[in-house]
Amino acid sequence: MLGIEDGVELIGRAAELGAFRSMLKNAANGNGSVLLLSGSSGIGKTALLARFGKLAAPYSDVMDVRFRSAGGTWRPFADRLAAKPLAASLSDVLGYFEGAANQRQQTLLFDDAQFADPSELNVLDALIDMARSFRIVIALSFVSAARELPPPQLAQLVARWRARGAVLRALQPLSEADSALLLRSWQLSSSVVVDASVAAEFVRVSEGNPRYAHEFLAEIRSGEDASALVPCSAAASASAFSASGSPRTVETLTMAAIVGERFSADWICEMLGYHEEDVAAAIQEGIDRCLLRGTLDSQGLYAFRDRAIQKALYVSMAPHRRRQLHERAARLLESRRTDERFDDLIARHWEAAGEFHLATQWLERSAAHCAAKGLLPNAAEFYERAARCAADGQQLALEEQAAQCYESTGSVERALPLRERVVSGLTPTQDAGRFAAACVALIDDYLWAGRRVDALELVKRLQQTKGTAARGPIARSSLCLALGLCRQGLENDARLAFDAVKYRHLPPSDRPRYHLVSAMLQSVIGSTAQTLSAIETAADLAEHVDDVRRSVSTLLQSAMAASLLGHLAAAASIVDRAERRAARGDESGKMIQWARLSRAYYQLLAGDVEGGGRILSSLAGVREGEAWDVNAAAMNVLVGLRTGDAVLVDAFLDLSLLRRLIETRQAGPCATLLMSFPEAMVARGAVRELREVLQHCADSAWGDFDCTVELAIGRFGALELADPARERIRQREKGAYGPVARAAGAFFDAWVAKRRNNQQLAIKAASTAAAAYAGLGWRLHEAVALELSGDFTSAREAYQECGATYDVERLRRKSGRRATLAFFGAPLTLREREVARLVSSGRSDPKIAGELGISKRTVQNHVAAIFSKLGIRARWQMAAAFGANGQTRQAATRLCK
User: Do residues 156 and 195 both lie within one domain?
Assistant: First the structure.
């Protein structure tokens, strides 16, 4: 778990930070230990050691030793030992640290140990030997990778140190999920908007290298094309190679970079007119300089070892020269083409050369091959690229084909702009059938993405279309709209749309949806058993629909309806069926990802925070548009709150997303975010913005079946909004969804009573809510209700079962106090900053109370909140973060913003 102080530069390094924290704890008990960090250049060793030093500073003396060149000096040792030569002062070094460790814990950090000379390695060896017997923690880093091996003596010592108990951690590149988390965190902190193409280029070029990743991000500007962005260290390496390499070698590898990440020596010979021996010598030099891999791939091609350097070589050539070489490469590859594997590469070269009509032909050919093989994501990208290159007359047809492929794989967000362009390019008078079909497809996509207002407007436009060819599409669009309104809790509007649907006009693929909407509307007056039976019928029909996307989406909607009846087991079973159905026909895996995201939701609802968190972590690199972002953000923030992972909260607490949903009047997605955002917004000091959001929801009478909006209003909204919100919950307490609404009603009453200082009513209502949620199996809701009722023991046990580690620790520290400690990493309030300033100046609690005109108890509560927010345990640590004159230091300033 990463704390807020760890920062985005350490994303993906939680295991190493956890190991070092354990080492500090063991050293406090008298057991020293050694941690060895290895990895390639730029993998993040230095950043980790710097963080280790900050972690250790409050508890121990820290000595930071950095070897920046072979034979470099250890200045901290030289300062401590009167500048004596190291080789002659080994006993002094050991004696010094033995005495120091008896007085206070010692932390020694050694960076880039591969540059240490033999005498320095001897000192390291002796220190590591003695560390186990004293309160000494040692962390040592060195470069070790396939192309960067440590010196033989160091390698031998590492083996010996490991045999003596040292722990070796080989740092790996960031996973795609960690890279996505890093990008998301950076976007929120920098307010720079990054589109899908830039995000893909970021992942492609950085390849999990933290140094490249941060350098790439530093170059990004809003709305800027990323095709020419290169990490500065990669650009420096390419520049150094161009300056020091032979002209023929530089020309050869630059030409190879134009060809792509992989190339054949024969291609380079023919394109440059060089002799085979000259090209072979240039390739060998590239291998020796670690620019190229030393082995051929499965197709017998050479490959660049580092995409960032390959791109740096590529952009170093003038654009006009690049276009000429791309044309030459395209003609060469056309003449050498043996199968369809070359089609995409040929198309890329024609596109880069500006020959768009030729690029269109090759892209269409590639798309057709991919579609025939069931590789629909690839086919969609090829069709979309072909549409961009095509003449006006071809664009609409190609965009329709691309949209169909995207929709079949669940990538609705990629399909949406294509569908919008198709609808805007067609007129109902010319081809009513095609126009109506295009509108229905777009309406379906709008609803999938949560854009119900846009869907409603398009339905109204479609209903004006005349002709028998439009009957089926009109029926389908009305059904889609009814389902969307049902999910939003607007049953009356949904019934009006549903009554306009003629069952006989629906194709078989839409009839399961008809039964599902019918079940949801009947739930208002029907029994739970009847409604669940109707939902199961809809799920049975949906499982046999040929269209995998429509089949899986209807199954997932059925699961949601079952969960709102309080039947989590039935919902989980339907999600299982959705995953199996997706596995049978979803080659891209997109619908499986949606099913897994739904599974994470039900696991969180049932109280399995750890299980839901694991699924979300595995899906961190997935970006499937706004609907996906909304659900992923809501659940990840919830997991972060319950586990105390402040970095996770900050990475997904996207307030701009919430504002956008409010501005575009998207009630359903907004309700989803309110599942977790309000608590995090309060912790981050965004109370006013939260109140405005809740006021808008109340004014618009927004709600949903599980009463998320109303509960947020009851807990955080203005109290004058409470009565209308409670009335909306009361209207849902009848019918099949009554159990969930009644539990939410009691929960709502508890929060409002607590805010109105009616403790007796709050305890009674919270106890009722806890019992109701226990009956539903909503374990996490039950835990919160138990805490609200004052039953901290049962609440702590419930949180423990849920895996809500932060809440368990929070209640453990609460020690009977009624006030809840603030969330770790939350910004200090103005009053807390004033109290912190006075504490740092050495004043006692009674003196602070007198100076500020508040009670001593209030001062103590403020001090406890400051401790919780800053993650400290003593008043002297507060003084370390705040100067005596009240000016905050850098770390504290960041937390107080």
Answer: no
